[in-house]
Amino acid sequence: MTIIKTLIFTILVPGSITIGIPYLLLSSGLRRYSFEIGAPRFLGIGLIALGAVFYLWCAWDFVIAGKGTPAPLDPPKLLVRRGLYRLTRNPIYLGVLLLLIGETILFESLSLLAYALVLWIVFHLFVILYEEPTLKRQFRGAYDEYCSAVPRWVPSLKRAKRESRQ
User: Is 16 part of a structural domain of the chain?
Assistant: First the structure.
C-alpha cells in the first residue's frame, strides 16, 4: 500500500512541479525556440535523467527503509540514512531541482530558470521552518546526530569518498 501511495504522491506533486507547471510556463510563449541538438541540450537531458534517478531512488528508500512515503502527510516512520541520504539531507528536493535545471537547459527557458530558483527558496523555507523541526521532534538525538554528520544541501565529496571506502 505504501508503494501505491508513493506513486500517487509522485504523480500529483513532483509530476505537477516538474511536468505540469513547466508545460504551462513553456506554452505561455516565454521561451526561446531553438531546434539545435548540441552538447548543452544533451547536458539538459542528462540532468533530467539524473534528477529523476535521485527522486526515484529516494522515494524507494522512503518506502523500503523508512516505512513511509515522500508525502508530508505520510512520512517515513524510521529515519532514512542510506543511499543519497548519506551525502545530503535533501536529495529529493535536489533531484527535483536538477530535473528543472535540465529542462531549463533543454528548452532554453529563462522562465523555467526563474521558476527553479523560486522553487529552491520555497523548498529551503519548507525544510527549515517545517521539516527539520518536525524531524527533530520525531527522531530526537538521532536526527541531531544525522544533521551534524550530513550537510543540508550540498553533498559532501569528502563524505562520499569515506563512504565508498567502507
Answer: no
